[in-house]
Specification:
Elements lengths: L29 H52 L37 E6 L9 E5 L12 E3 L10 E6 L20 E6 L2 E13 L21 E9 L6 E14 L15
Parallel strand pairs: 2-3, 4-7
Antiparallel strand pairs: 1-2, 1-5, 3-4, 5-6, 6-8, 7-8
Length: about 280
């Protein structure tokens, strides 16, 4: 067979040469453009949220924890320097005329209410970590108190050692997460509160969960409006569950001991105090 010569391009009727062209892209509708832009914004927002969470739970958390340890040490050291070296512990006297005290060193002293945002106590909770120590400041405003990584005192509640309810709040996730392990407390766990007068030892008794509006937990007798208190309680409040905060987790304790500064810190936290 003889080789066929290339076929000349054909010309349609009318003399116009056929030319191959790319198909035209259809223009996107306004709705699809809006959806696309919105999707990109969502992706960007998601990345920013992840970066923020990384900041909160890593670098920022470490910085706040270190600052809290420094602030707690400064408070302890300032109180220690204000205590006369010659002062000796004085156990409560026993007298037939006086009712016996519940505590070895007598009735615990009660601080005057501090000024707003003033740091007046240090909290130690071994269950939260062997090196756990956080300052307690007056007020529960997130910006001026809680976001600094420590705990805040509900101003309407009692002070450490006072009959009634000493109630404090702290973040559970973010801002140093001081109450991250509040759900891990076990009955009998000690909670130590240090002030200029000494150390108040509270013993954990139990927990409950309430709505964000369950303010009855900070009453002098929790959940019993108008009742007359007889115990010296501590109440820890924080958000629950983690990262959602649709409710509040509440931990209760009762004062079981108090130690004046002149007697030295309780053995369980002696290595942490002012160090």
């Amino acid at each position: 067979m003889s080789e066929q010569p290339p076929t000349e391009p054909t010309t349609p009727a009318g003399g116009a040469e056929t030319v191959l062209k790319r198909p035209r892209r259809q223009k996107r509708s306004m709705v699809s453009r809006v959806v696309g832009v919105f999707g990109e914004l969502l992706i960007t927002a998601g990345v920013l949220v992840l970066l923020f969470l990384g900041w909160q739970f890593s670098l920022n958390g470490i910085m706040l924890s270190n600052q809290q340890a420094s602030d707690a040490n400064s408070l302890s050291q300032s109180w220690a320097s204000d205590t006369p070296a010659s002062e000796a512990p004085a156990p409560a006297p026993s007298s037939a005329a006086a009712a016996p005290s519940t505590f070895q060193y007598g009735e615990p002293p009660v601080l005057a209410t501090p000024g707003n945002t003033q740091e007046f106590a240090v909290m130690y909770v071994p269950r939260f970590g062997s090196d756990f120590k956080k300052t307690i400041a007056e007020g529960v405003d997130p910006r001026t108190v809680l976001n600094k990584g420590g705990a805040g005192h509900y101003g309407t509640t009692q002070m450490p050692g006072q009959v009634g309810n000493f109630a404090v709040a702290a973040h559970r996730d973010g801002w140093g997460s001081p109450f991250l392990k509040i759900n891990e407390l076990q009955v009998g766990d000690p909670i130590y509160i240090e002030t200029q007068d000494g150390w108040y030892t509270y013993t954990y008794r139990g927990s409950e969960y309430v709505t964000p509006y369950g303010v009855g937990v900070i009453d002098p007798v929790p959940q019993s409006p108008g009742a007359t208190p007889t115990d010296r309680l501590i109440t820890l409040t924080s958000c629950n569950p983690l990262y959602v905060a649709s409710e509040r987790i509440i931990a209760y304790g009762v004062l079981t001991d108090w130690t004046p500064r002149s007697a030295g810190a309780p053995a369980a936290i002696a290595g942490l105090v002012g160090a």
